[in-house]
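FAQ

Q: What does a record look like?
A: Structure on top, sequence underneath. For example:
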């Protein structure tokens, strides 16, 4: 499950498989146990990634580590798969199939909740990862600027700015006309869609001009002050524009 699409696909698959884990009059306990254990392991893995706060509920439906006695409320899926029946005076205290179905439904509902939460959770995860990458890139740009590799520093800032503006356009579902938009294209599109005001648009356009200067070797050399402005400006944009 390396990508958001794969995680969502896995969750949908788990829901489909979960339906088949219900029991009827002709169920085979050994086959059910094998199928359930495989499903449980994969489902727990995904739940722990998407909604870790529900892991304890998911696990407790399968097995309780501590309980004083086995009642309908404390009967778990693992008990059913082991064929445990609770009796008194030779009579079952409760319907174990019904208890199993209730706990399975609880787990099924948690997997469904993970599917519902997946888009926003995965979006937040991508945002955090991007922010960490951008921070590392800006530190690299600063180091290059200190060593007077001005063009290289400026180009890194340009990549960071483009990546950040593209993520904003994606989050706001802004349709970009060009397949490979430039920094100026992104700036214009976001301003036109109201992502930020004219002063910020002018500020980013200035950063774009410096970036273009760094990328075109036939033009004059960028100055130290210009690249410093680009580095600081890039930091400002990724922290203030969302």
């Amino acid at each position: 499950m390396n990508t958001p699409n794969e995680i969502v696909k896995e969750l949908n698959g788990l829901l489909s498989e979960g339906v088949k884990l219900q029991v009827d009059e002709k169920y085979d306990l050994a086959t059910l146990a094998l199928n359930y254990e495989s499903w449980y392991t994969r489902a727990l893995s995904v739940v722990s990634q998407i909604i870790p706060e529900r892991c304890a509920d998911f696990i407790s439906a399968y097995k309780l580590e501590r309980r004083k006695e086995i009642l309908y409320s404390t009967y778990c899926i693992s008990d059913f798969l082991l064929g445990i029946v609770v009796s008194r005076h030779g009579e079952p205290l409760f319907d174990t199939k019904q208890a199993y179905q209730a706990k399975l439904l609880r787990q099924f509902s948690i997997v469904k909740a993970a599917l519902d939460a997946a888009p926003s959770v995965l979006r937040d995860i991508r945002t955090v990862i991007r922010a960490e990458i951008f921070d590392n890139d800006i530190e690299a740009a600063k180091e290059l600027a200190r060593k007077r590799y001005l063009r290289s520093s400026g180009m890194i800032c340009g990549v960071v700015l483009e990546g950040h503006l593209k993520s904003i356009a994606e989050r706001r579902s802004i349709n970009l006309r060009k397949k490979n938009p430039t920094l100026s294209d992104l700036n214009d599109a976001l301003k036109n869609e109201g992502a930020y005001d004219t002063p910020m648009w002018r500020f980013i356009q200035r950063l774009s001009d410096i970036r273009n200067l760094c990328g075109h070797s036939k033009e004059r050399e960028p100055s130290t002050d210009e690249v410093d402005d680009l580095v600081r400006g890039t930091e400002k944009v990724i922290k203030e524009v969302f």
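Q: Is there anything notable about this one?
A: The chain has two domains: 4-118, 148-240.
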